[in-house]
Amino acid sequence: LIEKAALTRREAEIVRLVMKALPNAQIREQLHITDNTLQKHMQNIYRKLHISSRLELFRIMSGTDGAGTGL
């Protein structure tokens, strides 16, 4: 799914961290990025995957809606 959506390496890394249920603060700290940068990456991820929330991201990445195949 990540390749299909043409996510960048950084976006894919963020998706993996989100899927570990890490809060934004821990993701920012691990990646050494600002809140604005993380939010921009999340917007790009949502746009590319045609979703609008973290819950939807969990659903498609876990395959619970039939669209995703996981990481």
Residue share in helices? 55-70%
| Structural class designation | mainly alpha
Order of helices and strands: HHHH
| Radius of gyration using CA atoms only | 11 Å
What share of the residues does DSSP label as strand, in percent? under 5%
Quaternary: single chain
- Spans of at least 5 consecutive residues with low confidence: none
Q: Count of DSSP helices? A: 4
Mean pLDDT: 89
Number of strands: 0
Tertiary shape: globular
Main beta-sheet strand count, sense and barrel state = none
| End-to-end Cα distance | 8 Å
Question: Which terms would index this structure?
Answer:
71 residues; mainly alpha; globular
Q: Which SSEs are present, and which pair or pack?
A:
Blueprint: H1 9-19, H2 24-31, H3 35-49, H4 54-62
Helix pairs in contact: 1-3
Give a structural overview:
The chain is an all-alpha fold and 71 residues long. Helices cover 61% and strands 0% of the residues. It contains 4 helices and no strands. It has helices spanning 9-19, 24-31, 35-49, 54-62. Helix 1 crosses helix 3 (35-49). The radius of gyration is 11 Å and the shape is globular. It starts with 8 loop residues before the first helix and ends in a 9-residue tail after the last helix.
Quick description:
This protein has helices spanning 9-19, 24-31, 35-49, 54-62.
